[in-house]
Amino acid sequence: MTKQAWKPGAPALETLSFTVRLRRGGPWRPLRHRWQNFAVTVPADYTVVELLESIKGHQDPSLAFRHSCHHGSCGTCAMKVNGLERLTCVTTVADVVKEGGHLEVEPLGHLPWVSDLVADAAPLFDNLEALGPGHVRMNGIFAGCIECGACISACPIGGPRSGYVGPAPLAAARDALVTGQAPGLGWGLLLERVDGNHGVWQCHTAFECSRACPADVDPAGAIIQLRQLLASGQAKSLAGLAMSRGSAPAGAPAAGPAPAGGAPHDHRPRREGGEGW
Amino acid sequence: MQEPLHSVTQSELRYSPDRDLGKSRGVGYWAFYLHRASGLVLSLYLLAHLGFLSALYRGPEAYNAFVAIVSQRGMLFMDVLLAAAAIYHAFNGLRVSAVGFGLGVKRQLLWFWVAFGLGLVALAAFSVRLLGGG
User: Which residue ranges make up each domain of chain B?
Assistant: First the structure.
């Protein structure tokens, strides 16, 4: 829904009146988790995060939620809206609620709950940094991922709390392999983790991660590609190739700064001119 | 600093505005839970089956009496439900295995419905044969 610009003298924008149910509480008071209802009337083209800001500003200043860019770039504001993962900054209330209806907002699942609508994305970031190509932290991205955590929340297997590496980090590992850029953990540990009990073989191909991804990253497709690479032995070949290129002659282009956290053995190989997978 | 290999840059639009995120969970999500539930049913049935077979230890009379009970028409409907679980688990398992190894990934949703349809046909054939006495 495109936002309408209101001009003085123009008729008022269409408004919607409905009830917002927000998940309140946090891990520090396990017996007092609750849903809190707020009656609101807002313009239909309000985004969900604007709605939350309105509630925080006018009804309950103690409400906790995360947001940053307000234009779908940072992934910070991902939450579950009516049970589905959404970027709340680009989801309008008209998209998800009708006049007189209910709108439920809760934090992302499968990530540690911090407070109210806030889930801690640190396990996701850690895994991305560990398994993703070296430039993940340099540019903050890989293959368009906005690191929102929606895939982890939507995955029926669970997230880092269950031990599962998770869809986005596995997609990052795939990117590291096919681009030949050293992951934070190094090649040996990358292969060990993606091929381990909590790696690609734990995925049950529900495809819900790809469905929930607001950036079209298709983590499920990446996981399947990783499986094929592992099953055919190409993963080891690619890692070996990348490692050998890491000891390229002097003068070879450097790959940028080391990932935060320090890689155990960062070979910084570049995949230049080689055949893609 | 060397350019990143990927074409995405910070200035580009990062989310897909035309992405249809749907109004509910996808078929694959429910297929996953149905697969787990049917697997649980089959596991419990296996345990119960082994328990029932222990009637053999008590002699032919005990076993025949048990078979007479489970051959009643009402119990045969339970067999249909068991067959439904087994057939779904088998057909969806084939789909999951195939897709998991890269076969038909782009059409995985179509394969689910194909597997589901074939399962229904197999279940109908089994039910007619079981309940119709064929």
Answer: 38-44+72-131
Question: Does residue A271 sit within a domain?
Answer: no
Residues of chain B found within 8 Å of residue A181, distances taken between Cβ atoms: 5
Contact A132, A183 (CB under 8 A): yes
- Cβ contact B22–A84 (<8 Å): yes
Mean pLDDT by runs of 10 across the 277 residues of chain A is 59 84 85 86 93 95 93 91 93 89 94 93 87 60 79 89 88 84 79 88 91 89 89 78 56 38 34 30
Residue A273 lies in a domain: no
| Closest chain B residue to the Cα of A273, Cα to Cα | B5
Q: What is the ipTM of this complex?
A: 0.75
Q: Angle, to 10 degrees, between the axis of helix B108-131 and the axis of helix B73-100?
A: 160
Instruction: Return the residue in B6, B7, B12 with the most chain A beta carbons within 10 A, the one to mutate for interface testing.
Output: B6
For residues A127 and A242, membership in a common domain is answered with yes
Q: What are phi and psi of B118, to 5 degrees?
A: -65, -40
Nearest-neighbour CA in chain A from B83: distance (Å) = 23
Domain holding A83, by residue range, is 15-119
CB A78 within 8 A of CB A65: no
Q: Are residues A174 and A100 in the same domain?
A: no
pTM: 0.78
